[in-house]
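**Backbone description:**
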Amino acid sequence: MSYGYIAKLSEKVGRQHVRFYNRFGIALAGDLYTAKDLDRRKKYPAVIIGAPYGGVKEQGPCVYANELARRGFVVLTFDQPFMGGSGGEPRHISSPEMFTESFSACVDFLGVKVPFVDREKIGAIGICGSGGFALAAAQTDVRIKAVATASMYVMTDAVRLGRSPEEIAAAKRALAEKRWEDYEKGQPEYLPSFPEEPMESVPQGVPEPDAEWLRFYAVKRGHHPEARGGFTTTSVLSMLGSKLLAFVDEISPRPVLFLVGDRAHSKFF
């Protein structure tokens, strides 16, 4: 398999490909990062890093993991089910429950299969849409002792953003009809946002924030062939029927850190 990491691995850091299962029995592909001089007879804090919504572990997570491993953390990155190197069919399905469960599956793996991890010091970082899923996991999984988010999106809120009740009702009707169409065709519709091959540059006239996303995901800087953006069309229904952060107050007194860009499109969340 060609992994296509967007950042060079530090010579001081080791990376091991791992595979483990979520509670639905789907295999998740992960990368375990550790400092090469780590004394494995001791216990260390661990961090789980979730990729941006529609992204894979070889993109932003590898950048974060490389740096945190150098600083003494054990770091686990992973691909969501139906994405990248993880299992699950059909591909590019989005599920708030499964994407939240992935963080708990990572905690399972770290606490059982990595003997030099301190079970009482496991945290999570969610980039973009993973921020919402990391917080959602921490609502119920008290083994996650701290959460940090970077430019967080809460995807169950994002699908409703700017839509009137009438528009949401119309979207539900259209998506419900789409399920019949997909069933007749034998596969769900998937319309990727990014090209198979990286662009040389972003075309002029593309409005923001679309242009901002293209400047990373569609050009060589951040492009990955297994992260072409978006999910199956009818995946939106699962987001419309869920509320990710209904119990976010129950994370307290565990600490939460929000990293927010002053011009970020996601600042609203």
